[in-house]
Write a structure and sequence with these properties.
- It comes from Flavobacterium solisilvae.
- With 98 residues, the chain is an all-alpha fold.
- It has helices at 3-26, 31-52, 57-97.
- The longest helix has 41 residues, at 57-97.
Amino acid sequence: MSGRNSESILALLAGAAIGVGLGILFAPDKGSKTRVKIKTGFDDLKDEAKEKFSGSKEELKEAVDNLLSKSSYKAEEAITFLEEKLAELKKQNAKLQK
């Protein structure tokens, strides 16, 4: 499996994870609707990953597992960053409301 394909999938999954994090933070829908949207998004990503890789099933599973592991760290970093920014905005908003 080439490094370029792995990097592409990593970028795709990291972007999706960040998008999911943002979507959860700013979701106007009920929790049940948000969970359905997230599941659908991950199902779509899984299908795209299967199409992109033409290797054996075991190679695909290993690549996806590795990429999910790496992207979960990126998602955590993004969520932490967003939480810090949200806390700053709340503090600024509290000052303005006084």
